């Protein structure tokens, strides 16, 4: 590690500990040339997730874009920002666990619908109407009927 004071390439690690969030390692180093101390941070290198859109174009996964879609679906609904952050964390964790760096946007949409269904049915239907691009009232009613049937099945258990 290059010393920020004298440019010497050799240093020794004096202390190592994880940061508060546990995402990085903080290292205190001492330059073997000038003897001054400095801090470095070590982070895990990650390969970005690529989203394959319906038109087959690719773009980097963007948490904020997903959050904005969920916020629109949850507008004026009793869903807290923290709940949505947790939903996105859950989705992102599932995506990371797939071991595939290219994910279809359909898969991400399905995960978002699955998570929304657990927390707010109205937000779920709103999101589904955009995600599934309901073409007419019959398609919309079919989705509502499916939701109602699931609710009845769950109450019988």
From TrEMBL:
Binds 1 zinc ion. Signal peptide: none annotated. GO terms for molecular function: ATP binding; DNA binding; zinc ion binding. Keywords: ATP-binding, DNA-binding, Metal-binding, Nucleotide-binding, Repressor, Transcription, Transcription regulation, Zinc, Zinc-finger. A zinc finger (unnamed) spans 3-34. Pfam families: ATP-cone, Zn_ribbon_NrdR. Its cofactor is Zn(2+). Residues 49-139 form the ATP-cone domain. It comes from the Bacteria. PROSITE patterns: ATP_CONE. The keyword rRNA-binding does not apply. Negatively regulates transcription of bacterial ribonucleotide reductase nrd genes and operons by binding to NrdR-boxes. NCBIfam families: transcriptional regulator NrdR (TIGR00244). This is Transcriptional repressor NrdR. It comes from Candidatus Allofournierella pullistercoris.
